[in-house]
Amino acid sequence: MEQAEDRNERSLLRTPNSELRTKKLKRVLLIFPRERGIKFSNDTLYPFPILGLTLLAALFPKTYEVKILNEVIEEVDFDAEVDLVGITGLTCVIKRAYEIADRFRERGVKVMLGGVHPSLLPEEAKEHADSVFIGEAEGMLHKVIADFESGDLKPFYKNREWSDLKGMPLPRRDLLNKRYRPFFKVIETTRGCPNRCEFCSVPIINGKRYRLRPLEEIDQELSTIIHKKGEYLFLSDDNVTARQDYAFGLFEIFKRHSVKWMGFTTIQIATNEKLLEKARESGCISLFIGFESLLQENLDNVSKRFVDTKELSNLVKTIQSHRIGIQGAFIFGFDGDDPTIFKKTVEFVQKNNIDLPTFSVLTPFPGTPLFYRLEREESIFDRNWSHYDMSHVVFKPKKMTVQELQEGYLWAQKYICAPRSILKRLLWGPKHHFFHFLMSNFVLRGAQMAVIRRIRKEEMPKPPITKLQSSNNQQGYKDQ
Ligand code: SF4
User: Is the minimum distance from the CB of 239 to ligand 1 under 6 angstroms?
Assistant: First the structure.
């Protein structure tokens, strides 16, 4: 009762002729679900600000009171007074998203599901929602709202257009839990990726056409969120340097705002030293680079032919020589990988002093070319989406057994999370941004060790027995 009065008081709107009148706001709850122990939603010291939901919140008209809830740091109140619930879902947390949706729907609250997994498997998501949103919200949400208000929500909304990034509203960062605020700000400058890596869902979700925000709009947005020199900025872009001419302009703006920034790119950036120099001058401290594999045949097979694996060490040195650290991502389980790959990759990471390495198991996310290929080859044996967190093996690899891949991944992960490995890489490496990477490694270590413990306790689904499964790991990492 008290809460209801509170809300009414807040919704007393002053009309142009200064009369006060009560206008009931519609309440929307946007939820980012979490499942304990899942790699992408683990409890960490720094819960990641959810840019997607803040952008979505900005698209609602002023007659809506929007709340954003990240389950990583807040619990869902299933009794909350709310008119509409929107839930976004990555594949690995979709089970939890469906649970939340079912609970609200039991009370008669309308629920919409959107985001990566519902966009890829809308029919499955519809079982748990009144409506499923496929694709990007920009350019479509106004239609959803009109239908919601007239009580005529459609089962599916499919946005066939890739939205123009021009004139995007400012994300509603003010709606984020206060626990986000002391750390880093997140901004989006481009969307999509022109490459077509077989395992990656970015070209399907964000498009193969590389879209750019106008530089002046980024400049304006930074003016509203960067208040002092040296603030941390994280770029949510899939590939910030895919258009190098644009990147030069962007870095000039970052320099003017005196930020320290981190973002995703490809190793190709190392072939343009002028761009690297500009990145460093603009405050770049760390680049997240998908190395994926050290085997050329793997990269060729998954359409990442633009990387020459023989050059990798030199390219790493070039980036580090510009005082930029590397967050390097590697994947195990490609067709060319046998049990020797784990030790080879760990050695590469240690020898080249990769500042913040991350290892993953190859995962056939629904909708990706990899998923369809492995389906045709009848290799996928586990369809529990909670296992699609890039830590569990859900398909039969070609040159090792399922168990060898799972154990090899856990071994490699544990190795690079060990304090000895972290300190060796950071102390023998170029030591740029030492404390930043020291802290990042130990934060990541906490999350990764939780995943390892969880997998060790689990009863994993067993694939059908094949010849390979009886191989005895003679070439494996354990024997080297
Ligand atoms: S893996 Fe990276 S380079 Fe490849 S398609 Fe995805 S975002 Fe682009």
Answer: yes
| Tokens 């909304």 belong to residue | 157
- Ligand 1 within 6 A of 200 CB? yes
Any atom of ligand 1 within 6 Å of the Cβ of 202: yes
Residue 107 Cα, ligand 1 centroid: separation in angstroms? 41
Amino acid type, 39? K
266 lines ligand 1 (CB under 6 A): yes
CB-ligand 1 contact for 203 (6 Å cutoff)? yes
Domain of residue 319 covers 183-479
- 202 contacts 238 by C-beta, under 8 angstroms: yes
Q: Domain count of the chain?
A: 2
Task: Calculate how far, in angstroms, residue 152's C-alpha sits from the geometric centre of ligand 1.
Answer: 38
Output the CA 76–ligand 1 centroid distance in Å: 34
What pTM was computed for the model? 0.87
400 within some domain: yes
pLDDT tens per residue, the chain (480 residues)? 334 434 333 333 333 333 334 467 899 999 999 876 665 544 454 556 578 899 999 999 999 999 999 888 889 999 999 999 999 989 999 999 999 999 999 999 999 999 999 999 999 999 999 999 999 888 889 999 999 999 999 999 998 888 889 999 999 989 987 776 657 889 999 998 888 899 999 888 888 889 999 999 999 999 999 999 999 999 999 899 999 999 999 999 999 999 999 999 999 999 999 999 999 999 999 999 999 999 999 999 988 888 899 999 999 999 999 999 999 999 999 999 999 999 999 999 999 999 999 999 999 999 999 999 999 999 999 999 999 999 999 999 999 999 999 999 999 999 999 999 999 999 998 888 999 999 999 988 988 888 888 888 877 666 665 444 433 333 334 333
Ligand 1 pocket, 318 CB below 6 A?
no
For residues 154 and 192, state if they share a domain: no
How many whole angstroms separate alpha carbon 309 and alpha carbon 293?
8
β-strand pairing of 190-191 with 325-332:
unpaired
Is 11 within a domain?
Answer: no
Alpha-carbon span 167 to 213, nearest angstrom: 8
Question: How far away, in angstroms, is 192 Cα from ligand 1 center?
Answer: 9
Q: Which of 268, 143, 246 has the alpha carbon at shortest distance from 190?
A: 246
Same domain for 380 and 292, yes or no, is yes
Ligand 1 geometric centre to CA of 85 (Å): 32
Sequence length of the chain is 480
**In ligand 1, which atom is closest to the CA atom of 194?**
8
Burial class (CB in 10 A: 0-12, 13-18, 19+), 7: middle
- Going from the Cα of 407 to the center of ligand 1, the distance in angstroms, rounded, reads 26
